[in-house]
Design brief:
Length: 415
Amino acid sequence: MIRKIVLAAATVLSCSLTAQEFATYKNGFIYGEETMNKLGKIVDSLNLKYKTCDLNQVFYSKLQTKGYSVKLKSGPITQAKKDMDLNISFDDFIKKYPETVVKKDLLLIKSKTINYRDKEVTEIREVSINDYDEMEIEIPYKKELHTKPAKNKWVYSYNKKTSYSEEYIEAFYLLDNFKSIPLAPKYSRQIIYSDCLIDTSSSKLKKDAKRGGFPNEIPKNWRKLSKTEKEKLLDELRSVQVVGSCSQDESPRVQGVYLALLSAETANWPVFLKSHLDIMNDRFERASDASYARERRQTYIKELETLNINVPDLILGTSFRMENPANNHYYASISRSGRAVAESKDRELFLSQLLSMMGDETLDDYNRIISYFFYVNCNHYIKNEREKKINNIKLMRAVQKLPKYLADQIKPEKI
């Protein structure tokens, strides 16, 4: 297993906290000087390629609306379900079922997705600002229902009484139809830049990759292998999706860094950047993952900044949520991106755009609140206390420019 592997280029964290997660070279990076030079030449050509892309492409926001959530766990629940089917008004429902738990003025997002049973579904979920108790409801996907007007309608999930649980119903009451609006050209260009650099025509792992553990052995002298041998080893690593067994199991990240190292040395840019971004975003499957384990995993944003990449456009371009992404578009983790930006040399530029996005009335509500989450996560990881306080003051001002129903949910003591 992974603990038996002699790691030549990457040192796995032990159970205790360490200052450095992976071994670095004299240049201070996890990739050597020669490798960084190879990557830099690829980036230069990709930056030229970006200038020939269709910069007029339009991206649209996720389908979204405002609504209420209701939970009913006692009383005549079957009758409540019938009333929802008959489209009872919200006020009449609350009067008839006073024991209902209600949350008002929620931002709701609708998506077509594939659930864990491999079925196409329409998912409607709330975007929670103050807690993690986000309700989501799935209904079988039908195109005519997915696009049907939904103003003043109910969407519910009814659960019968079983030997394991009591009867209950959860529902959203939709105050308006779901809408999707175009993102401004300045935002679309950042998305286009990220797609150009990341290369959405391919994926990090092979399509037929099998879930499993990390290979039992990596050649100790793998750096001395020929390019053909390195490419073969890279192909083998791309054939398995490593899943962590617990928080302490760092094998997914070890696979990630080997993918990045081997693809960098063989000039396989698409695999390299996706692998490095996965390390930065900590995008790996694990059976469980405690917060203390997440804290010690580094972001390695400085490696990207040294490669002449427009890192603000790259990361922000992967942070927008949209309805019409390119196939294989890379979505960043907002919390991890915030942490990475806290370490960025362009931190002020990042934070300035996030503040601007919060106040941009032409931007959809979902991406505006995402910019709030991004900013909060970034400021949390800034070490300079004076800078954090100044940023908090700026944030409090920006919050007042958000749509009122969102601004009212943000508590000053949590900023």
